[in-house]
Amino acid sequence: MNVQHYAGRELDLFANAVTWKSYYAAEVRAYLCGDVLEVGAGLGINTHFLKSRLAASWTCLEPDPDLADRIRKRFAADPNLADCRVETAATQDLVGDARFDSIAYIDVLEHIADDRAELQRAADLLRTGGRIVVLAPAHQWLYSPFDRSIGHYRRYNASQLRFCTPSGCSIARTAYLDSAGILASGVNCLLVKKDAPSLRQILFWDRVLVPVSKILDRLTFHLVGKTILVLWTKK
Length: 235
Fold this sequence. Notes:
Helix content is about 35%, strand content about 20%. The chain is of the alpha/beta class. Strand 1 (about 35-40), helix 3 (about 45-50) and strand 2 form a beta-alpha-beta unit.
């Protein structure tokens, strides 16, 4: 079993970003259907926003045993998530035939050193016609002390993720999200350079900037933003 201990401490802080989670979930929820695997589920908070009736089953992978225990307690108290399976594991621990229709990496791929190998493992776990959904921080020029402190190896642009395309898959969609937030991130990266945002900053971004982004992202045809969404399908 690939047990790991997550060094980041931002998960509880970003749990307060409910407007953001609702926004990106609305962009990806339709792709998460059939038997779904959520890799690096963290606290299980994203699952609440992502899971819908389109999912026949939902499995959360979380290699940190403490986080996995917190997920189990959260799900046990939520009737809508009580049927989710939680495994203290990583994709390396899953062996056998393809078994999933959708695999999600929500703010996870940037934490993995060999991202190309990780996506290939995901593709191998997909049935034909299945989907891999990645949501990740965008633009390396925005890489900040905060990224470093929570174990981000990199931030992405569209060409980088295109280069990571696993064999047997093709990109079906690429979009940038949170065009208003890119300004705040740029200021923090270039001027403030804090190791972590404050709760006040998170709430301002979530309650003020994200609603603006929901409008601007459509107007800019999802060509600008501090987060990137990529969808692959397996041929």
